[in-house]
Write a structure and sequence with these properties.
With about 450 residues, the protein is of the alpha/beta class. It folds into two domains: about 350 residues, Alkaline Phosphatase, subunit A; about 70 residues, 2-Layer Sandwich (Arylsulfatase, C-terminal domain), CATH 3.30.1120.10. Helices cover about 30% and strands about 15% of the residues. It holds the Pfam family Sulfatase.
């Protein structure tokens, strides 16, 4: 063989190897991101569930075997935080992947005063993003991002919606706090009998069966935002405590709330067990990522464990909440992570799992995919909470809390690595750090919060 022939042979060999490598890489990409191999996503959100409200987080009174099983087979977070300390803000952050202040939803969208405002249709939601890549999406439960039909979930990326749009409804009568019937199918009011928690579960079960990717050829995103354990406190056998056209809620004896609360959480846990059983029966349990979390900390009727404060406060009890991630054979079972994660991280994380990035120019959340799959530490970042006149910044293990009362600002500094209960104020011992964190907090407020028209308070 001549030298010329040898060179040609080597050249064509290298070209072939390069082409084979490219095809292999493309095959891998397609295998990860196309067809049935793309994971389904199920996100289950409790309402006002505290850090100490379920048994795998130390509760000895409430039994949550199905949630506990998710934790034992998946990843349990000890440093997970809702973006807001109340309902609507966290949901705005969840949907958009950004601080809720950027969307204008910085507080509760109330039944009394905010019936004509909501999350802007122009915002790109998780459902919007996943739809671009062939995902079916369904939402069943609590929306709380706009009462009027023009803010309906079906106009914000979801293919189907059943549930309520207010902050809470009578669990049996499906009436909001102002006396309006609040039960929807899509953008239409449609009365339906049943206990709210059970209905949400049944909708979820039906969605999984009807949208099985093995039949439809399309992966799915299922969002199940429960009402439990938000008031009104009602058991399955109770009667309605609200009436159409009548504002307010009939009270129940204070000494019975604990028992009702216990049953409400346990019924939700039972429903989660049904969702997981449906995944197993349909053969989808090996290719579905399940996330469970709460939208904010517990009220004073719940349990936030060792944490200080409650819902609507920027102390840990207001926003450090239980969270679990489950993906068999992908997430190492029985893992406990203390990496700080926020609700707004789910949108970029879900997209990262299918090899895509958010379309929105501004995304504050980060992908936690490598944390979930490999246990890789997250990049360092400062985290912020703001509700009304209360503000907080977390920088590594340091947390600064600023409470504005009239013309007085009360500042506290806590070392969460030693004092998760925020019992010892170190502000006087570290004035230098206080100044640094106050400056960072001020910069964040100017950049993110101020200048945006708020749609709630």
């Amino acid at each position: 063989m001549t030298k010329s022939s040898q060179y040609k042979t080597i050249f064509f060999f290298l070209v072939a190897m390069f082409a084979l490598h490219c095809l292999s890489a493309q095959d891998i990409k397609e295998e990860e991101n196309e067809g049935g191999d793309r994971p389904n996503f199920i996100l289950i959100m409790a309402d006002d569930l505290g850090y100490g409200d379920i048994s795998c987080y130390g509760n000895t009174m409430i039994n949550t075997p199905n949630i506990d099983k998710l934790a034992s087979e998946g990843i349990r977070f000890t440093d997970f935080h809702s973006n807001g300390t109340v309902c609507s803000p966290t949901r705005a952050a969840l949907m958009t992947g950004k601080y809720q202040q950027r969307t204008g939803v910085s507080g509760v969208i109330t039944a009394a005063n905010h019936r004509n405002v909501g999350l802007a249709i122009g915002e790109l939601t998780i459902a919007d993003e996943l739809k671009k890549y062939g995902y079916s999406s369904g939402m069943y439960g609590k929306w709380h991002l706009g009462y009027a039909p023009e803010f309906n979930p079906t106009l914000q990326g979801f293919d189907s919606f059943k549930g309520f749009v207010s902050g809470n409804v009578d669990y049996h009568g499906h009436i909001d706090q102002e006396g309006y019937v609040d039960w929807w199918e899509g953008a239409d009011l449609k009365a339906e009998e049943g206990y709210t928690t059970d209905l949400i579960t049944q909708y979820g079960v039906n969605f999984i069966k009807e949208n099985n990717p093995q039949i439809t050829g399309k992966p799915f995103f299922l969002y199940l935002p429960h009402e439990t354990p938000h008031y009104p406190y009602q058991k399955r056998i109770d009667k309605a405590v609200r009436k159409v056209g009548v504002r307010g809620t009939a009270s129940i004896p204070q000494d019975s709330i604990a028992n009702v609360y216990k049953e409400m959480v346990e019924v939700m846990d039972e429903g989660i067990g049904q969702i997981m059983q449906t995944l197993k029966e349909t053969g989808l349990d090996t290719n579905t990522i399940v996330i469970f979390c709460s939208d904010n900390g517990a009220s004073k009727n719940g349990n936030n464990g060792r944490l200080k404060g409650f819902k609507a406060e920027v102390y840990e009890g207001g926003h450090r909440v239980p969270a679990i991630a489950w993906y068999p054979n992908k997430f190492k079972e029985g893992t406990i992570t203390d990496e700080p994660v926020m609700t707004m991280d789910f949108l970029p994380t879900f997209l990262d799992f299918i090899g895509e990035k958010p379309e929105s120019e501004v995304i504050d959340g980060i992908s936690i995919k490598n944390l979930l799959l490999k246990g890789k530490a997250l990049p360092k970042r400062d985290l912020f909470w703001s509700f009304k006149n209360d503000n907080a910044i977390r920088s590594e293990n340091w947390k600064l809390v600023s409470i504005q009362e009239s013309d007085t600002e009360n500042v506290a500094l806590y070392d969460l690595s030693e004092d998760i209960g925020e019992t010892y104020n170190m502000a006087e011992l570290r004035p230098d750090l206080v100044n640094v964190l106050r400056q960072k907090l001020g910069n964040w407020q100017k950049k993110v919060r101020y200048g945006v028209k708020e749609v709630s308070n």
